[in-house]
Amino acid sequence: MKYVIVLEDGMADEPIEALGGKTPLAYAKTPNLDRLSKMSDIGMVHTIPDGMKPGSDTANLSVMGYNPKIYYSGRSPLEALSIGIPMKDTDIAIRCNIVTISEDDVPFEEKTIIDHSSGEISTEECAILLEAVKKELQNEIYQFYVGTSYRHCLIWDKGSVVELTPPHDVLTQVIGQYLPQDEALREMMKKSYDILVNHPVNLARKEKGLNPANCCWFWGAGTKPMLSSFYEKTGKKGLMISAVDLLKGIAVGAGMDNAEVEGADAGLHTNYTGKKDAAVKALTQDGYDFAYIHIEAPDEMGHQGSYERKVQAIEFIDEKVIGPLVEELTAAGEDFRMLVLPDHPTPVRLRTHTSDSVPYMLYDSSAPLAKDWNYTEEAATASGNVVAKGCEMIDILFQK
Questions:
Q1: How confident is the chain (400 residues) per 10-residue block, as mean pLDDT?
Q2: How far is CA 259 from CA 46, 110, 168, 254, 275, in A?
Q3: Sign of the torsion formed by the C-alpha atoms of 331, 329, 319 and 262
Q4: What DSSP assignment string belongs to 142-156?
Q5: Phi, psi of 8, deg, nearest 5
Q6: Residues forming a β-bridge with 241
Q7: pLDDT of 264
Q8: According to the model, what pLDDT value does residue 261 have?
Q9: Long-range CB contacts (< 8 A, 24+ apart) of 278-286?
Q10: CA torsion angle for 117, 122, 128, 129 (degrees, to 10)?
Q11: What are the b/e assignments for 143-152, b being 16+ CB within 10 Å?
């Protein structure tokens, strides 16, 4: 038996009036999910433990079977593992987004955060910008490291796990009250704006009508993570397929392998087919028992506040991942169990994460069911199936 999770990041949502009172998942044209759901179990799973913030870090740890209450030590340290940063036990890792803030002629504290991803800026452009920041701000205490797209890392030697606000939680708001209380971090953010606002990369972006990446934003502080081996915990050899450093870092910490998929960039037009191909090859040719296909696009579209693009992302996943994945695994003669779910909701109305439970669909090719439901939030709730602890979902997949 082979096992696969298709994690549609942030897919769950609220009913939207413009979609006829349907959620993006319910509204999207998903013929493959519709067909499979009638042969599958569906239900709701609570991925965010009570009292913890609804992030992709805690939620994906939960889906992978790691209780965040035990294993979570901060978001950025997991990303640091992916980047390959040799963290010391006394280091603090901090996420360094390069974001877009308003460039109006007001004090820094009175500016507004416009875009947490700087228009999904490329890694190549952002690396140039981060190099300019490093030249001015890096020292023995604060070290900057390039990540992916707008997502980078700051290592603070002998630092503290300080409270910091995620930028996607405060989009369109004046930034003053959300700046770090730590004076050094706050001053670095202010200086980064001065360094980047007129950088040639940003001047060129503005000429093209793109959002400039004009300010470092620090958040997600934490200590060196200590995850147990996924193989020792489950007996399954696993492969992570993601364009996001966070997920790659979780895999590194858990002793899993990471697939490198050309053109996978966490955006709406990521290489969906390449991710599906990597999973099929891993499960049918390379001796893996388990593949975790993480797709960031629905979450990014939720943060952008675009229900149209979120619907499109869900349709792309159905067309380019779900359908072909099932077809090719079946053609290869593999029995498999497939779990489809989001990690958390990212409602378009809110443009950030919530802690609400999410719908799951579990398909077993060797024991198809006969149901009359489709895979939607409403149907999953009505099913009466509830998994109260998200970290137990992996055991349900593996039939433990």
A1: 98 98 98 98 98 95 97 90 89 96 97 95 96 97 94 95 94 97 97 98 97 97 93 98 95 96 93 98 98 97 97 98 98 97 98 97 98 98 98 94
A2: 28, 42, 27, 15, 9
A3: negative
A4: EEEEEEETTEEEEEE
A5: -95, 90
A6: 259, 293
A7: 93
A8: 97
A9: 278/239, 278/241, 279/4, 279/239, 279/241, 279/325, 280/325, 280/328, 280/329, 280/332, 282/239, 282/241, 283/2, 283/4, 283/329, 283/334, 283/336, 284/2, 284/328, 284/329, 284/332, 284/334, 286/239
A10: -10
A11: ebbbbbbbbb
Adjacency order of strands within the sheet including 41-45? 257-259, 238-241, 290-295, 2-8, 336-341, 358-364, 41-45, 386-387
Between 245-253 and 75-83, two packed helices, what is the crossing angle to 10 degrees? Answer: 80
Q: Dihedral sign, CA of 255, 166, 13, 212?
A: negative
CA atoms within 13 A on the CB side of 1: 13
Biggest distance spanned by C-alpha atoms of the chain: 64
Sorted by where each starts, the structural domains of the chain and their CATH numbers stand as 2-73+227-397 (3.40.720.10), 87-222 (no CATH)
- Residue 98: beta bridge partners? 216
SS3 294: strand
Residue type at position 180: P
- Residue at token pair 């719908």: 359
> Which amino acid is it at 345?
P
Q: CB neighbours of 400 closer than 8 A, spacing ≥ 6?
A: none
Position 47, amino acid: T
Q: Torsions phi, psi of 91, nearest 5?
A: -80, 150
Check: CB of residue 4 under 8 Å from CB of residue 336: yes
The whole-number pLDDT of residue 55 equals 93
Looking at residue 74, its pLDDT comes to 86
User: What are the tokens at 203?
Assistant: 């001047």
- At residue 225, the pLDDT reads 87
Query: CB-hemisphere CA count at 13 Å for 223?
Result: 10
Tokens encoding 390: 């998200």
79: nearest Cα among 291, 260, 224: 224
